[in-house]
Amino acid sequence: MISFDSFVVTDKSPIYMQILRYIQRGIAAGQICDGDELPSRRVLSALLGINPNTVQKAYRLLEERGLIESHTGAKSLMCLDSETVEVIRAELLESDAKAVVGTMKQLGISKTQALALIERYWGEETAE
Amino acid sequence: MISFDSFVVTDKSPIYMQILRYIQRGIAAGQICDGDELPSRRVLSALLGINPNTVQKAYRLLEERGLIESHTGAKSLMCLDSETVEVIRAELLESDAKAVVGTMKQLGISKTQALALIERYWGEETAE
DNA sequence: CAAACTGTATTATATGTATAATACAGTTGT
DNA sequence: ACAACTGTATTATACATATAATACAGTTTG
Asked: Does at least one atom of strand C sit less than 7 Å from the CB of A79?
């Protein structure tokens, strides 16, 4: 069963989009795998304190992207192959990197300063 | 006169928020200074191809934050002191750094990998 | 079988964002 | 003074997001 423990709604973007991204990041990080069971619409909505329709909207998008399989009455399952996982991972990495480079450049930060800043905010990550 | 040449509406967030951020980043980068003249609501809306009311909403927020001064009939001017500029700069840097660190960590990237990725996407920035 | 769960669909309501069309008061430039 | 610009305000409309309250069909489980 996919966990939503670390899901938080701080963002101002639509909740159904945040759910979508949460799943995609889970896939990219290898925490969410093919065949994994998703919480039901009602259960997840109760868990997150949001409307079932909002969860449904997110799940519908995931299905349209071919990432999950849903059938009336049955539980919804993740539907992934290794190629899909790699594509998602690459997409997320690229968009993240581009975003940070873009905003930092706009602030007039040098590459060295940017790297130092990120290193500092990485915090107590010791190993690696 | 403050330039909006490098302003683009790609983001999904509200346009008036994007205008707000654009100004704030300009302030932080030192491109926008105290006393600078803002384009009028009508002119900027025509320039960006959006509704005057949307620009007004952004300008109103800037005024509520004390960053601009507006008076009926008169042109709107930036209203900044060095302390304000530093606060804005620090806020933007912190939120950007936190955002990228958060998302990269969620993807299970190591600090070294993250730094390498950013360095790569920084592109052809030669000096510094 | 029957109860309790699934997914799916519909209708209504509220709010935020954006547009459109005006209107009016104050300032600026000729 | 007068025209052309400013800022500000109002009303109406449209769309996206989110909630609420149901309803129904299919499955899973005891």
From this structure: no
